[in-house]
Amino acid sequence: MAGSEDSRNESRGSPELTPDGRRVAVRVQGIVQGVGFRPTVYQLAERHRLGGWVRNQPDGVRIEVAGAAADVKAFLGDLWDKAPPLARIVSVEVTELPFEPRPTFDILESHGSQNRSTLVSPDVATCRDCIRELFDPTDRGFGYPFINCTNCGPRYTIIRDIPYDREKTTMARFAMCPECLREYRDPRDRRFHAQPNACWSCGPNIWLEDPQGNRLSAGRRALADAVERLKEGQILAVKGLGGFHLAVEATGEERVRRLRRRKIREEKPFAVMFRDLEAVTRYCRVSPEESALLEAPERPIVLLRKRGKTSGEGTTPIAEAVAPRNRFLGAFLPYTPLHHLLFFESPYEALVMTSGNRSDEPIVTENDEARSHLREIADAFLLHDRDIHIRCDDSVVRLFGGAPRPLRRARGYVPVPIFLEAAGPSVLAVGGELKNTICITRGAEAFVSQHIGDLRNLETLRAFERNVDHLQRILEIRPERVAHDLHPDYLSTQWAERQDRFPVIAVQHHHAHIASVLAERKISGPVLGLALDGAGYGPDGTIWGGELLWVDAERFRRLGRFRHLRLPGGDRAVLEPWRTAVSALYLLAGGDVGKAYPDILNTFPARERSVVLAMLERRLNCPLTSSCGRVFDAVSAILGVRHRVTYEGQAAVELEQAAQADSGRYVGAVYRRDDLWILDPLPMIRLLVEDLRRGVAPGILSMRFHNGLALLLAESLEKAREATGLDRVALSGGVFQNLTLSELLEADLVGRGFEVFTHREVPPNDACISLGQAYVARARLFRGR
After folding, report:
1. Domain boundaries defined on the chain
2. Contacts with 196 (C-beta within 8 Å, 6 or more apart), sequence order
3. pTM of the predicted model as reported, rounded to 2 decimal places
4. Is 618 annotated in the active site?
5. Which candidate, 6, 45, 151, 293, has a CA 20 to 30 Å from the CA of 656?
6. Mind listing the pLDDT tens digit for each residue in 541-564?
7. 5-107 adopts what CATH topology?
8. Among residues 38, 275, 391, 704, which one is catalytic?
């Protein structure tokens, strides 16, 4: 829980106190609604023999207590030390009042206010107590797919407004039965004011449909019938917490391939939900830290290293089609009662559970939407009638150096804010194009939305707009500015520029990357920034992506960049990495690439190869890029790892996956040109090709490339330190999702005496752009005042 000793003891006013009596008003801010905070306060007041009251307000929880001074003091200490497990206290403000005895302690109805500074809880996995009741035949919650309490269940995805009360959620239409109402009203009950509280008699229900919309079965029977469909190899669309999943048995090769064909998702890995942690360990190598992540209340997808083909005696391996050419598997555990019941009814330990959507569209949330969008994919639909108000994908996390770093931040983590170093003006930042998120700031809080997706179609733009409206409403914020990317063709940029009521601030893409690290790590003053990704719009009209920067909150200066490569065909080169490989070889050969590297060229498509060479010769449709991501593409294609990609970053991902342990490295060059340090990887590529011709295994070549690239980056930062005197380094960009490179570079920099800052709360990919944009925009607003 956050907070300082000062915030514990802050008080206002000094009224006369009786020798033994004390009365105080308390305001608690943080995640304190919908997490069992009021019943905890009630029980603490009873334990300490205090009278008074507690209630929810839009600015947090308000408390008044009166009693013996020693008991009041003990009560205030317990507010911090004995808060419920899902609470996150940011501050406790205490105001002394004239002493008046209070005979009872009451929980009052929620009270409205114009100051909405409370924090909304994320959705939380089903707790152990509810799971125990779910499988207890003597409990009235036995087998109920929506069992929950104040320690678990849906939150953010069902909230329409705050304060967090039932009438302001999608549960409003379900009137509680007498038994549920009794639990809801009893401060000593685990379900006291659990807003989604319900049962078979009064709450949401489930049913099974075919693709034509015919209802096949309902209730308990629907679960059994759904499992029968899975046994038959069918694809099941399952309505979950923040959207739909598409489920199929994970060890059936042809079943998984059928899902790929129907979803038009050729090779991008699917996530696998396992029955329990023991099942995960049969298929994956799991460290204690990874076990803790898997079982955390957030229940993210965790990238784990696969075990070998034979995962254990009698165990059928996970189908290769789940994560082709990948040593890692995205594994997660059941997080809703419905998930637990599906596994209980089925013979399976592992089910593919991938986002329920068509290719490149947002995850589906509504029943009618599922019927129209997923009918060509799913063979049956397991539906329910609890509405999802806001879509929220599963989060993805990976351990880096023993510490978790998010790769996709969504369910379980949103809308917990990033706490900034200081309060400031409210701004709305609309992010980039890929892996889009938005960010709204309020005081010293930055609310980064869940993963929205790639802003390349109307459906995703609508999801983007809905998230903007939703966050502004529940936070009751009218931003002073809208921050956006420099790229004029991004849909987010175009949306921002259409908002006549808000002045706009443009923020360069890689400045935003590094600024996002400053924001979440609370760093003041300038740093050296290394921003490595696939593409970002540069002020000079070229495509940036391998940038060495001087950065503070409001400004940046380019200190260096990767050597330019040309991209034959522009965006087409991103989809066909062999084009970038030809471009790199063309530079190495001084133009006579056909004579210098015929053996490498002959591995690329013959007809298109001659066209690409002509484009390079004439510099026709060959934009310049300094992208580090494109260097990975070139190396991947030269080694024959990946010539064409079916998802973003695939060539780099598979190049890392191919790496085998080796201490060798290829040495690049760093030199000055036009007042910039140029990071030149071409000497590395020349050495790599020589080893390839000697028959060195591609896995060894990949490792030597990674080792050499880490050295090149470290040496460029050494030169920047000599020039600037700065020894603090911030690392950001999609390239830093590469575990091998990240760990090599961070260890090297620490060894050289640098202080290294990386992401901890938001992903290093473009999902962090909105946070960085907001941070820069706030700083520029400060400067203008």
Report:
1. 5-107, 206-384, 399-524+766-783, 560-757
2. 146, 148, 153, 154, 158, 166, 169, 171, 386
3. 0.91
4. no
5. 293
6. 999 999 999 999 999 999 999 999
7. Alpha-Beta Plaits (3.30.70)
8. 38
